[in-house]
Description:
This protein is of the alpha+beta class.
Amino acid sequence: MKKLTRLIYSLPALLILALTISACGGGGSGSTGSTPSQGKFVDTTVDGITYKSGTLTGVTDVNGTFSYQSGQPVTFSVGGIVLGTVSGSAIITPVQLVAGATNQTNPVVTNIVQFLLTIDDDNDPANGIQITAAVRAAAAGLSLNFTLTNFDTDGAVSSVINTLTTASVFGSRVLVSNAVAQAHLSSSLFSLLSGSYTGTYGGTDSGNWTIAITTAGLVSGNGTSNSGGPFTITGNVNTSGTTSATASGGAASASWGGIIDITTGIFSGSWSDIAGSGLGTFSGNKI
């Protein structure tokens, strides 16, 4: 009976212990129990950028992949040189690193791209940008001000570039030009925007649509109006994701204008009948 009594009194304590272990996730390594999300840093693929998000830290791989904690910002750096901090998302480009920037023409964005292209280990961005451990080590304790208006000619910038490129396989070199940096990022942004999108529209008319965007920013596709039948779509998109197109079919045509969010693939905007008889909104996603 004494043994049974001891067992009965022990059961609540064992139950509390079991529940506590379960709530802590057993032997899991994360204290929050949340699964990290993954994204890609793209200015072509960039291998070797250090990232930090909450308690997560690491280096981007050959595909530019990084991890981030949901709801936490991500800071990207090379040694002591901070490129920028941004909310975590599936796609991060140098544009997202600069508040208020929309494309490659932003001067701070251009400076960041110049820097990344210049420290590429083999000086050939066609096969991706690789930032080696040797370059990261050489950058420890260094800093750069990417907001400088004279970034190209600043002596401190030139000194940092010489130090880092000397540590690369290709060797010492000077900063690539603004034009080269902007053309490179423009091509990368168009590649990210290209692909197929589909969605629906509503308003004074409703229906569905599907478009394809080329790496040159050309838009083409078709749709079906619930009241007027099939129509075609033609237009273009710029590197900011701003899209303008014309939908033509039957007896009517409409102007479509919207924005593609490069980080999520969501495409949304508004449309209006060229004849002035109708208007509405549309939305869709990259597929």
